[in-house]
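Task 17 of the worksheet. Students: predict the tertiary structure of the chain below and write it out as structure tokens. Keep your answer in the requested format; marks are given for formatting as well as content.
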Amino acid sequence: MSEKKSFASKTDQIKKIAEHWRVILEKEHEKLDIQFKWFPQAACSAASTILFWALRHEGFDARIVTVCSESRYFSHAWVIVEDLHIDITGDQFSASDPLYPPPVYVSTQLPEWSRGLPPKPYSEDDNADANIRDNYNQLIEKYGRIKFYHPVVE
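Model answer:
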């Protein structure tokens, strides 16, 4: 019983962290690097990197995963922590799509909008763009490390 409570607590914490960073990126994306210009569209890799660092700083063993079709026509990135998939840009896909995802997705289920492609982990920290790291540091400086986890106040 306590194991299930522990899992729910971890899931709730991760979801609050993801929701918090989604709100920040929605507010700040136009002031950040070009990779965030159309957030959430075309920003999955950059946003996943920000979320990866935020989760790591809170002690979670986060990884970034990507999917890419053979034609490279479709690709997407999100974060995983153990068996949880965390996606803060899945809603970039068309609202006419029957699989239209929510702005923040946290689930043990592989996101349906991954189109059944197998997720592949990559070395996020080694490949991270220096501009994204600078953006993350600026956002931490502006908003601070969250004292478990309150909504962003304007």
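Marker's comment: Confidence is low (pLDDT under 50) at residues 1-6, 149-154. The chain has one domain: 2-143.
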